[in-house]
């Protein structure tokens, strides 16, 4: 089959399915994207020039749609050029978030199209206004509602949608949900797996050495920001450091902003929180190594005594799936996306998003109770083996492609994934 993939930052969410299809050597894969340095064997990248930004004179509520139709125009021209050269795909797969796919049916009206439907924005009840520390005024509600303009156009195209969790589908209006298939994402269980040996030797990360006798608390986010609970994690740190002298904390992630807004007075959220903590922050026991190589990220998870994962009611991170597969003893925020993965007291603990002391107590309960920690780690891995298999994910993806195209695609088990840099994945949703 001939597959046309579309994502503004190749390969985006299509890393595993594109690699799987390419590995079979039975398909022709073309990937339309903005230029970048990423490469994948068996996949031909076709770049398009990044369009100019939305017009400054456009109403703020219309700028995202303006930017989206500009992208649609650029990708549509690229597609038309491919057609002129004789290229006719059998299946189009892409992400609807940036508008890139909106004009593709004009080029290939009969080709089945599967679009990634990641999130439906709402001015109340989900992520916006969730955190009272960062209130949103009613005057901003029109802009937030208008962020769904591309969603609505995409849902009215001839084709189907996909999303990786039931909760993400639930954010869409009821009339739209029947158009969206759930393709539950998996991880490479032979790569993301427990490693008991790592506890027997010191581990150095961010210039800090964690001895075998230390208790390591980990936190991971693409960027250290409020959407992923970074202020909550930082406010829990003084409680942890005061309670136990053997605790060390590693927080992996960049200083940018993937979702939401930067600090109002400039700088980074890390700077803001270090200033707020003052003497409660001990740089000899807390490090921020930034974005680290994937192997080091995995080693940190494998060595972790307690791993903290926090998020607004928003898209769950890939790191949550990977932490479960590694067998981390996880303390997660008691928010809808996390509850889809973690059952409190079974394969992790859930803590209030708004209670730093309570979060610290949950972490300390794991650190201070080896039996509890072992139970949570074992159950996290068991959950991953039952629910997060890469083979199962790819089988469901292939089955959906087969249903939409009527083709039969032979299936072979996926090969282990090569390593990658943690937190260098492209932004995959818009805050």
**Major sheet summary line:** 7 strands, parallel
Spatial order of the strands in the main sheet? 3-2-1-4-5-6-7
Q: In terms of per-residue confidence, which ranges show pLDDT below 50 for 5 or more consecutive residues? A: 419-431
Give the class-level CATH name of the largest domain: Alpha Beta
Approximate helicity band:
25-40%
CATH topology of the largest domain: Rossmann fold
Considering the protein shown, what is the CATH homologous superfamily of the largest domain? Glycogen Phosphorylase B
Using only C-alpha atoms, the radius of gyration works out to 22 Å
Write down the overall geometry. globular
Named CATH architecture of the largest domain: 3-Layer(aba) Sandwich
What fraction of the residues are assigned to beta strands by DSSP?
A: 15-25%
| Order of H and E elements | EHEEHEHEHHEHHEEEEHEHEHEHEHEHHH
Annotation, overall tally of beta strands: 15
Give the N-terminus to C-terminus distance in angstroms.
Answer: 35 Å
Mean of residue pLDDT values: 94
Number of domains: 2
Give an overview of the whole structure:
- With 431 residues, the chain is an alpha/beta fold.
- It has two domains: 2-186 and 389-405, Rossmann fold (3-Layer(aba) Sandwich), CATH 3.40.50.2000; 196-386, Rossmann fold, CATH 3.40.50.
- Helices cover 35% and strands 16% of the residues.
- The chain has helices spanning 15-23, 63-84, 104-107, 141-146, 149-155, 166-170, 174-177, 230-243, 269-277, 294-303, 318-326, 336-339, 356-367, 370-387, 390-405, and strands spanning 2-6, 28-33, 43-47, 91-95, 113-116, 160-163, 180-182, 203-205, 208-210, 215-223, 247-254, 286-290, 306-309, 330-333, 349-351.
- The strands form three sheets. A seven-stranded parallel beta sheet has the order 3-2-1-4-5-6-7, sandwiched between helices. It has a six-stranded parallel beta sheet with strand order 12-11-10-13-14-15, with helices on both faces. Strands 8-9 form a two-stranded antiparallel ribbon.
- Helix 11 crosses helix 14.
- It starts with a strand and ends in a 26-residue tail after the last helix.
């Amino acid at each position: 089959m001939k597959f046309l993939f579309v994502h503004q930052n190749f390969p985006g969410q299509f890393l595993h399915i594109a690699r799987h299809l390419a590995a079979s050597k039975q398909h022709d894969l073309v990937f339309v994207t903005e230029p970048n340095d990423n490469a994948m064997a068996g996949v031909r990248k076709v770049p398009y020039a990044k369009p100019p930004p939305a017009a400054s004179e456009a109403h703020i509520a219309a700028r995202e749609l303006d930017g989206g139709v500009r992208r649609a125009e650029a990708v549509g021209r690229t597609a038309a050029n491919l057609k002129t050269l004789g290229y006719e795909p059998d299946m189009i797969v892409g992400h609807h978030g940036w508008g890139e796919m909106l004009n593709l049916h004009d080029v290939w009206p009969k080709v089945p199209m599967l679009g990634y439907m990641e999130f439906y924005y709402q001015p109340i009840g989900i992520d916006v206004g969730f955190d009272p520390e960062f209130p949103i005024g009613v005057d901003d509600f029109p802009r937030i509602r208008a962020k769904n303009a591309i969603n609505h156009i995409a849902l009215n195209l001839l084709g189907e949608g996909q999303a990786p969790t039931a909760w993400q589908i639930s954010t869409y209006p009821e009339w739209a949900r029947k158009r969206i298939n759930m393709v539950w994402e998996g991880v490479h269980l032979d790569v993301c797996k427990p490693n008991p040996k790592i506890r027997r030797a010191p581990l150095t990360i961010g210039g800090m050495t964690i001895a075998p006798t230390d208790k390591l608390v980990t936190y991971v986010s693409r960027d250290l920001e409020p959407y992923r609970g970074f202020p909550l994690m930082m406010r829990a740190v003084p409680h942890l450091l005061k309670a136990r002298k053997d605790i060390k904390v590693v927080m992996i992630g960049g200083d940018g902003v993937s979702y939401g807004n930067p600090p109002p007075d400039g700088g980074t959220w890390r700077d803001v929180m270090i200033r707020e903590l003052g003497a409660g922050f001990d740089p000899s026991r807390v490090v921020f190594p930034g974005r680290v190589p994937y192997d080091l990220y995995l080693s940190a998870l494998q060595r972790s005594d307690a791993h903290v994962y926090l998020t607004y009611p928003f898209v769950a991170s890939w790191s949550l799936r990977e932490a479960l597969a590694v067998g981390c003893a996880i303390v997660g925020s008691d928010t809808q996306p996390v509850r889809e993965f973690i059952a409190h007291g079974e394969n992790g603990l859930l803590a209030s998003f708004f209670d730093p002391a309570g979060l610290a107590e949950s972490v300390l309960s794991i650190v201070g109770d080896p039996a509890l920690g072992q139970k949570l780690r074992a159950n996290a891995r068991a959950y991953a083996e039952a629910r997060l298999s890469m083979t199962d994910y790819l089988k469901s993806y292939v089955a959906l492609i087969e249903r939409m195209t009527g083709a039969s695609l032979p299936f072979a088990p996926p090969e282990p994934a090569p390593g990658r840099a943690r937190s260098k994945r492209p932004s995959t949703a818009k805050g």
